[in-house]
Amino acid sequence: MSPPTDPVFDELFNLARKAASQTLEAKFKEAFASSPDRLDDWLRIAEEMKTTNKRAQAGHLLTFAVEHYEKCGTPEQRVRLHSFIAGALEKDRGHRTTLARALQDFHASSPAFELFLDACGLRADTAIDAALTDLQKMWAYDVGCYAHHATGWGVGVIDGLDLVARELTITFEGGRKHSMPVRSAMQTLKPLSPEDWRVLKHFKADELRAMCENDPGEVIARILRQLNRPADVAMVRGCLEGAIVPAAKWSRFWTSARKAALQRADVELQGTKIVWRQVNADDRLVAMKKAITAKQVLDFANTMLKGIAERGTPDPKVMADLFPVLCEGARKHSASDESSSLELLLLADDIAEQQKLTRLVLDEQLKKEMSDERTFFRRLSDLGNPKHEKRALDHFREFSGTTYPDRLLALLKLSSARLLDMLVPELLDAGRVEDLKLLLNEAMRRLDAHPELLVFARRRCVHPRYAAMFEGIEQKALVERCLAMGEGSGKAPDPRLRALQRQVGKELTDGNGKEFRGLVKTLNLDNARLLKRRIEMLRGLTDHTQIIMMQVFGEVHKELAKREEVLPPHLDPSVIFCTEDGIHKRNAEYEHLTNVDLPNIFAAVGRAAAFGDLSENAEYTAALEERARLTKRAEEMVEEIRRAQSITAALLKDGEVTIGSTVSLKEITTGKVREFTFLGPWDADLDADRLDYRANFARSLMGHKVGETVIAELGGKASNFEIVAVKSAIAPE
Would you state the pLDDT for residue 175? Predict the structure, then answer.
C-alpha cells in the first residue's frame, strides 16, 4: 500500500524499509507524541518492519502506543494494536493476556466469546496468529448463526451454550438438538448465511413462502447457487414442494418461477436444465443496456448491488459506471406505466450521494419525472420501498417549493396506507387539517373513494398525533366501515377492496383479537350487539376472523354469548334458498360441466401428454390446472345443490321483508322510489333489480317492516331508505 503524502510519515516509512531501528524508534516517539491517533499509519510502519525481518522490533515499537490507546482508544483499535504486539512479542505472555482482555471488551455482546477464546488456544500456548485466525473462523458459529451438517442432521441454528460441558447447543431441522465442542462444530458443520434458502425453509418458512410469491426468480437462483450444478424441475421441486409450495400449486409456481429466473443475468438455460453462473459487473452493465423494460434494468441493478454489498465496500469505478446506466435506463423506459423507471432514478440518486458524483443530468430527469404529477404519484405509490419513498418525497418537496402541501394532497388520494404514514404528518404540520377531514369524511361516505385512507385512519384513530383529523369520528364507525368495504353491495366485490377488508380483519384479530377486544370493551351492550349483527352479515371476512370476533363479543359481553335456537332463514349458512327455476338452472350448469366440460378437458390432458417432456410442456401444465379447477368447481356445485331449498310461501311474512319479497323503497334524501326483489343466488339479475338475498344490501333490510327506515349501502354509498311496501315475489302454491 502506498504511504500517505506526509513528510513525517514518509521519513518513518523509509526508515522502517531500511530497517534503521534505532533512528526509527526516536523519530517514532516524537511523531507519536504530536499525533497519537494515527493508528493506521503506525500499524503500516510496523508491517513494513515485519517485511524486513524486524518483527520483534516492530512489536516493541508499538508498545509506546499502548498507554494512549488503553485510555483513549476504541475496543476495535485496542484489538488491532494488541493483536500485532502479542503476535510480534510471542514469548511475552503478558501481551497475550492484554490481547484477550481487549478481545473480551470488543466482543462483549457475544455469549459464546469465552468458549471461543478457550477453544482457539489464545489463553494456552497456540501461536498468536494461528489462534486469531481460528477465532475469526469461530464467529461463524456464534449463537444465532446457522450451519449445515452434510451427512444427516441437515440445517441447524446455534441457539445456546452448555457452559458445564463447554459445548455449543444446536437445534437442527425437525427440532433435533445436539451439543458439540467448538472444534468439532468447525470440522463437521458448514456455516450458512441467514439468507440461504435452506435456512429460510427450515427456520423462516413464512419468509421463503413470501419470496416464492413475490420474487420466485430469486428463490430459484439461490437454490441453483447452492447446488452449483444444472438442475431440472424435479430437483428444484424436491427442495420446495410440500413445506413451502403446496403440491396442488407446484405447476403454476414452477411456470412463473422458471420464467422469472431465466430473466436474471445469473441464471441461464443449458438444454432442458437451468444453472446459476457468476456474472461480473461488466456483463451486468451490458445486460442492463440491452434490457427492454425498466423492470429488467432494475432487477439487474438490484442483483448487482446485492452482490457488491455482500462483498463489502463498493468499488468506486463500478459504481461510477453503473450510475449513467441507471439514468439512461430510466430515460429510455420513462413512458412505461410501472414504477421501475422512478426507482432507477432513486437508486442513481443514492449512488450519486454516496460516491459524490456529478448529478446535473440526474436532477433534470428527477424534475421531469415529478412534473407529470399523475404519473409520478402513481409510480411513487407503487414503489413499496420506504427508503426510496422518503428520498423521492425529499426531492419532491425541494422541487415544489410553496406548492408542496397542495401537491401532497393530490398525492394523498392515490397513496397506499403505508405511504400515508409519511404524508399525513407533513400535511398536519402544514396546517391542512380541514382538507384531511374532508377527504376522510368522503372515504366514510363512499368506501371506494379513498379506501387506503380509511385503513390508515383505523390504525391511527387513537393516536394523539392525529386527534384533530378524527374530530367527530368514532373508532367503532371507522372499524365498521373498513370491515364493510369488500362486500360489493349486490354486485361482484372489488378484489382490491375485498383484500383490504380481510387485511383489516386480520389486524383486528391478531394476538387472539387483542385490538378488537379493546374496541368492544368501549361499547355498551346495545352498540356491541349492533356491531355483532353487522359483522355476522359480512361475507368477505375469513372464517377465522369471524370466529375470533364472535368469541370476543361473548367474552366481553356475556349476554352476546347466547346463541339463538333457530337462525332466521336469511342467516342460515346450511341452506341456499332459491326458486325452482333457479335450482333447475344450477342443475343444468352442473350437467353441462360434468357431461361436456370435464370430458373435454380430460381429452385435452391426454393430447397434451403426447407432446413429449412433461416437465417443460406448457400445454400439459395448463390442461392439468384447468382440469383441477373444473373438478373442484364440480365438487362445489354438488355441495351447493345438496343445500338448495325452494323458496316457498312459508318464508313470507305480511308486511315484512323476507326471502321471496318484492320491496318498494324510498330514498329519504332524494324521494326516489325503487323496487327490489330478493330471491336466491341463481335467480339474481342486477339489471332487473333482482338481488341475491345474501347480498349486503338485502341483508340490511331483512326482518324490517313497512314504514320502518333502514340505513343500507347501495352502490357503495350508505343511505336512509323507507320501506314503502312489501309483496310476494313467488307464485302462489
Answer: 87
DSSP characters over 30-75: HHHHH-TT-HHHHHHHHHHHHHTT-HHHHHHHHGGGHHHHHHH--H
Any residues with CB less than 8 A from the CB of 611 and at least 6 apart, and which?
617, 619, 620
Sorted by sequence, the CB contacts under 8 Å of residue 80 that are 6+ apart come out as 39, 43
Residues near 531 by Cβ (< 8 Å), separated by ≥ 6? Answer: 476, 479, 480, 520, 523
Residue at 533: amino acid letter:
R
Tens of pLDDT, residue by residue over 120-163, are 888 888 888 888 888 888 988 999 999 999 878 899 999 998 88
Cα distance between residue 141 and residue 331, in whole Å: 47
**pLDDT computed for residue 4 by the predictor:** 41
Of 508, 564, 510, 554, nearest in space to 528 by CA: 554
Helix H segments across 291-339? 294-311, 316-332
* Lowest-pLDDT range of 8-12, 357-361, 451-455, 700-704: 8-12
Q: Which residue ranges make up each domain of the chain? A: 7-106, 580-646, 649-728
Amino acid present at 623: A
- What's the DSSP call for residue 207? H
Whole-angstrom Cα distance, residue 314 to residue 310? 10
Pick the CATH number of 649-728 from 3.50.50.60, 3.40.50.11740, 3.10.50.30, 3.90.1260.10: 3.10.50.30
The Cα–Cα gap between 9 and 3 comes to 8
- The fold for domain 7-106 equals 1.25.40
What pTM was computed for the model?
Answer: 0.43
CA-angle at 675, arms to 669 and 677, nearest 5° = 135
Architecture of domain 580-646: Orthogonal Bundle (1.10)
pLDDT at residue 639, as a whole number? 77
Q: What is the pLDDT of residue 611?
A: 60
pLDDT one-digit tens code per residue, 301-316? 887 787 666 555 677 8
Angle between helices 495-521 and 451-460 (to 10 degrees): 20
